[in-house]
Design brief:
Two copies of one chain form a homodimer.
Chain A lengths: L2 E8 L18 H13 L5 E3 L8 E10 L10 H6 L6 E8 L12 E9 L13 E2 L6 H9 L3 E4 L14 E12 L2 E8 L6 H13 L6 H9 L14 E7 L1
Helix pairs in contact in A: 3-4
InterPro entries (chains A, B): PsdUridine_synth_cat_dom_sf, PsdUridine_synth_TruA, PsdUridine_synth_TruA_a/b_dom, PsdUridine_synth_TruA_C, TruA/RsuA/RluB/E/F_N
Keywords (chains A, B): Isomerase, tRNA processing
Function (chains A, B): Formation of pseudouridine at positions 38, 39 and 40 in the anticodon stem and loop of transfer RNAs.
Chain lengths: 247, 247
């Protein structure tokens, strides 16, 4: 087995998420990558993705791996070859040979997501595909203080979308920072893994604090309650970007 | 006459430029703005734009003015009212009452454009709508030195697209800077006015220097020649953005 790891970036706007949805005809990132691999290698190649980003979510550092089989292309030529076949909203940033036991999903030790809010009285049409527009002024300092309360190993049941069975709802958040850069507020969160919609629900809950509707301690109360209905809304996908997967 | 000035931002990707193209059915920025004004005011309002940005060109600070006629809306409410009617890729940033003799185009004393190049071995799918991707490494220092040679009052015939009659091809460039921010090279140019495709041809000519195909002095030779065929290519529209119009 020749195991190859790719780092991939995409504008997720027009895709129905990362994961292939067989038989639906809906475009997904995985499908486009596998199509390009098949065109280039002449083989059917199935790949494994690190994170199943949702419909409309972007990535700057998604990681996938696959068995190259009989495909004899030098690894360092894979990015250019694939980029010439991929749609313009997906790009392979790098390719590397990895040991046989490397698994994009199970070998990951940390993931970093950024949620971007455009916080100004009027929208910015040039940023609308990559930010969530919030016209009311947000207190990013309060959001930062509130976010810090989630750092550590906890049961994040309150921040998980319903209806998706998982073995455990315990995850570790290594860091959560909220910072303002001009009109853009970035929520950066790094953890060992995330439950379904977890980052978007955390962002929605921090928004309640930023708007002054809740005190920072509210985050701790929601976390302890383990009740989804006490947390904030699931904010829209276009603000979310998978920044990095660490191994 | 109640003369109102608007500052407008847009993602020009899906538009056939700023200027209304009557009878063609092609979407333009001007048409969308006039449609929103008509919906809100109940009157037919014609507006004047400061710069006729081309198909696919963006703006963060386009300026327009119009006679509000009998429309009685308070000026400060215009942005919110218009933004609720405009497509998501156009936004009114501000509205102000201006003297009767204010004319968005003729009263302008300076305009600033930015041309953005994404300069990295692999493309960035999240920036593709707003940058021109150049995979070969560019010497932005040489480009900056070359650009400085165009500053001043000159006949810019060599940097003007053919087939568009104008009274004079003399313009003044107040400043031209080329700087790198990570993988993005920004060409910022401020002048009293620009000929058709002038900024994109200047960028294409600077690219020759950045690629090492020409020395910085090439810019001066092209300028003096007044011959379009000696300048570089007209680079694609998506890298161009009208940043500011000064009065």
């Amino acid at each position: 087995m020749r195991n190859i790891k790719l780092t991939v970036a995409y504008d997720g706007t027009r895709y129905h998420g990362f994961q292939e949805q067989r038989g639906t005809g809906l475009p997904t990132i995985q499908e486009e990558l596998e199509k390009a691999l098949q065109l280039l290698s002449g083989q059917v190649i199935r790949l494994i993705g690190a994170g199943r980003t949702d419909s409309g979510v972007h990535a700057r550092g998604q990681v996938v791996n696959f068995d190259a089989g009989d495909w004899r292309i030098p690894t360092d030529r894979i990015p250019l070859a694939m980029n010439s076949r991929l749609p313009v909203d997906i790009a392979v940033l790098s390719a590397r040979d990895v040991p046989e036991d490397f698994h994009a999903r199970f070998s990951a030790v940390a993931k970093t997501y950024i949620y971007s809010i455009y916080n100004s009285r009027v929208p910015d049409p040039l940023l609308r595909r990559f930010t969530y527009f919030v016209p009311r002024m947000l207190d990013h300092g309060a959001m930062d203080g509130a976010g810090a309360m989630l750092v550590g190993r906890h049961d994040f049941s309150a921040f998980k979308a319903e209806g998706t069975p998982v073995k455990s709802t315990v995850r570790t958040i290594y860091g959560l920072n909220v910072g303002r850069h001009g009109n853009i507020i970035k929520i950066t969160v790094r953890g060992d893994g995330f439950l379904y919609n977890m980052v978007r629900i955390i962002a929605g809950t921090l928004l309640e604090v930023g708007l002054g509707k809740q005190s920072p301690e509210y985050l701790l109360a929601v976390l302890k309650s383990k009740r989804r209905e006490l947390a904030g809304a699931t904010v829209p996908p276009q603000g979310l970007c998978l920044l990095e997967v660490e191994y």
